[in-house]
Structures are given as structure tokens and as C-alpha cells.
Design brief:
Elements: E1 19-24, H1 28-39, E2 44-50, H2 53-63, E3 67-71, H3 79-89, E4 94-99, H4 103-114, E5 119-122, H5 130-155, H6 165-171, E6 198-203, H7 207-215, H8 219-224, E7 227-231, H9 237-249, E8 252-255, E9 266-269, E10 275-281, E11 284-290, H10 302-313, E12 317-321, H11 330-338, E13 342-346, H12 356-362, E14 368-370, H13 372-383
Parallel strand pairs: 1-2, 1-3, 3-4, 4-5, 6-7, 6-12, 7-9, 8-9, 12-13, 13-14
Antiparallel strand pairs: 10-11
């Protein structure tokens, strides 16, 4: 997850434009803290502060929120049970699941994503821990702002109608969505003529769904080449994600271990809270994990992986930047291109947030900007020798 010491300026808003946020948590301390943070932002407001999922379901028609921050563990009706009922009543509602860092809650958060939740956020074990609370504060406000703004754009006149909850849970991972507005063509560069020897992937918000869809369709690539992934995600959550990636790909996938040799046929996932790099050790590439400071406000971050891979594979790198907030991966992508490798970015229409892939696309470093469901076939062709 991201860690921030600074806060990006919000857009200027009038009261009518403010994002309406419903906070649902059985802890009065958490509700009060989140409500204060939201109330301090000029572009959002608290539409309701509720104790249970049942309260949220019963009152949503009256409250009409744009975004709901929904706790997992609550009396009367918990978050995972309230989720489909809320989406049934308000199809375009953006739901961000909030939970403490336990394996059970991580599993529930992944289930929530499959049921239509837009994202998740880990709550600190104690609000008295300054660093943890500041991270939670920053990440929550950014998720509300970016996900809420995207939902509003899609609900504006001329945009595609909101999908039903079941469709919404699958759209990012399977179906490209029509872009809301026409855009000027982005600069492209040719794919490298060097044969790729490794696949590197970076992702953040919306990444788990996108990653599972992608790895399910790149079996021929995984079988012959190593795949290394950095997803902005905390500990425990990356453990669960690795298990989901193994099931989706039907290949070996695990959290990377410091010092292990990188081999074809395997997916290596950066563990939450540690940067993953690769280093040359004799004839082998090996994993190097470190507990250094956040990079791009993130830990793990994509740039350390991308930059370190150049020393190992030089121009034989194929990199993919998927949906996510911020610009992590863009600088590392520039270095990969300068070394002779290639970058593919997910397009805006199929991204939950077009921050990371958009930064790469707008920097002019991409050989292709593609809908999610076009990326896997392209990778299979490129790793089979097609350089077009």
C-alpha cells in the first residue's frame, strides 16, 4: 500500500459537486476519525456515519451516497453481506472495503472485489500509531477521490450506463468499456527487436482483478519465462493474492523469497511491505528483498523492480503497467525503454484508475496501450517471436 508524507491538492469544488461519502463502521472511534478526514477535504463530505451494514442498507435510498467506506466486521449485518444489497439498491455506488490485516479479512476483501467492491483498504491495528494512521488517512482519501470521480464521469450524460453489480465485478477483468470521451492519440514507440526474456508487471488500485484475468491467459509465456509482479498491497494480502494467482494461472505463484533463483514457469510476487529487486548472482538472476523507505510513496514499489531488472536482462525486458493510482512504474519504464526493452500500458477505459498506466502512456514510453483483454494475446505473440 502507499505511504505518503504529502497530499496532492484536490480539485476545486462547489458544495453541489462534493462527493457524498457514507461511513459504515461499528467503531465510534474509526467513524469519527474518518468523518473528520473527509470533512476536512473541500471536494467531499460525509453524507452519513452509520454503525452497521443493516443501517446502511435501510438508509441508502435516503442518503444517496457516491462512495461507501464499508467495514467488514459489524453486528446485525456485516460488510460482505451488506455489499450486494447496497449495490442492488444503488448500482453505481463505489464501495471501499475496510478491514484489519488478518488472513480472514484479506480473504473476505478478495471476495468483496469479486462481488463488485471497487477497492479495499487495510485499517491500522491502532489509531495511535502515527505512521500507520497517516498512511491510512492518505490512502483512504485518495481512493475516495479517484474512484468517486471515475464513477461520476461514467455516470455523466453520454457515458455508458452503469453495469449491474455482477457485470461490474467482471468488467475490469474481462470486458473493455467504451471510453467516455475521445482522446488525442498517444505517442507510441516500436516494440524492441530484442527477444524478451522476462515479463515484469506493476499494478495498484484495481490490480488484483486485472492480474488474475491476465495471468489466466498467458500460460505459454509463464511456461517459458519468469514473471515478476509488484502489486501495491500490504502483508497478508499479498499472501492471499499469490494463492489466487496460482489458481487463476494454474502455474506456480508465490511471494518472492530473498535470495531465491528466478526460474521460468513461475510467478514471483513482491511481498507486502518489502521492495522486490533482482540481482545477478553468477549465471543466475536472484530475488533481493529489502526494507528500505517507500518509493513513490509505495512499498513495495514498481520502480525498484523495473530498474533492477535492467542490470540482469538489459534490453530483454517486457514490462506491463496495469491499473493504479499515482505514477509508479513510469520512471522505471523509461529506463527499461532506454536499455532496449518495451512497455505496455493498460488503457483508460478498462482501468479502475488510469494513474500509473496513464503516466507511462503520456510519457511516450509505451509500445502499446491496450484494453486489458487484449494484453494477454499480445504478450503471447511477442514472447513467441512477433515484434510488430
Amino acid at each position: 500500500m502507499s505511504v505518503a508524507l504529502t497530499k496532492s491538492p484536490p480539485p476545486i469544488s462547489t458544495r453541489q459537486d462534493k462527493l457524498r461519502v457514507m461511513v459504515v463502521d461499528d467503531s465510534v472511534v474509526i467513524r469519527g476519525m474518518i468523518s473528520r478526514w473527509i470533512g476536512a477535504e473541500p471536494d467531499m463530505e460525509v453524507s452519513a456515519s452509520l454503525r452497521t451494514g443493516l443501517d446502511a442498507v435501510n438508509q441508502i435510498d435516503r442518503i444517496k451516497p457516491d462512495v461507501a467506506v464499508l467495514d467488514i466486521e459489524m453486528p446485525e449485518l456485516d460488510g460482505i453481506s451488506a455489499l450486494p444489497q447496497l449495490l442492488a439498491k444503488k448500482r453505481d455506488l463505489v464501495i471501499i472495503m475496510a478491514s484489519t490485516l488478518t488472513r480472514r479479512n484479506a480473504e473476505i476483501s478478495f471476495k468483496a472485489l469479486s462481488l463488485g467492491a471497487a477497492d479495499y483498504i487495510p485499517k491500522p491495528e491502532s489509531t495511535r500509531e502515527a505512521t500507520a494512521a497517516e498512511t491510512f488517512h492518505h490512502d483512504l482519501i485518495q481512493k475516495i477521490r479517484h474512484l468517486g470521480a471515475r464513477a461520476r464521469r461514467r455516470a455523466s450524460p453520454g457515458a455508458s450506463p452503469a453495469p449491474a453489480p455482477a457485470e461490474r465485478a467482471r468488467e475490469v477483468s474481462i470486458h473493455p468499456v467504451a471510453a467516455p470521451v475521445a482522446q488525442l492519440p498517444l505517442a507510441r514507440r516500436p516494440f524492441s527487436m530484442l527477444a524478451p526474456r522476462v515479463l515484469l508487471i506493476g499494478s495498484s488500485t484495481g490490480g488484483p482483478q486485472a492480474l488474475m484475468a491476465l495471468v489466466a491467459d498467458i500460460g505459454p509465456v509463464i511456461d517459458r519465462f519468469p514473471v515478476l509482479i509488484t502489486q501495491h498491497m500490504p502483508p497478508t494480502f499479498t499472501t492471499i493474492l499469490a494463492e489466487h494467482l496460482a489458481r487463476a494461472s494454474r502455474r506456480s505463484a508465490h511471494e518472492a523469497v530473498d535470495g531465491e533463483i528466478v526460474k521460468p514457469g513461475r510467478i514471483y510476487l513482491a511481498p507486502g511491505g518489502r521492495h522486490m529487486r533482482v540481482v545477478r548472482h553468477g549465471a543466475d538472476a536472484t530475488i533481493a528483498l529489502d526494507d528500505g523507505p517507500p518509493v513513490n510513496f509505495c512499498k513495495p514499489a514498481v520502480d525498484p523492480l523495473f530498474n533492477s531488472a535492467i542490470d540482469v536482462w538489459q534490453g530483454g525486458i517486457m514490462s506491463v503497467i496495469l491499473t493504479g493510482m499515482g505514477s509508479d512504474g513510469m520512471r522505471g519504464g523509461k529506463e527499461i525503454v532506454a536499455a532496449g526493452g518495451s512497455v505496455i500500458a493498460q488503457d483508460e477505459a478498462t482501468s479502475v484508475v488510469w494513474g500509473m498506466p496513464g503516466a507511462a502512456a503520456n510519457a511516450g514510453i509505451c509500445a502499446a496501450v491496450l484494453p486489458l483483454n487484449h494484453i494477454a494475446p499480445k504478450l503471447v505473440r511477442l514472447f513467441s517471436g512477433d515484434r510488430s
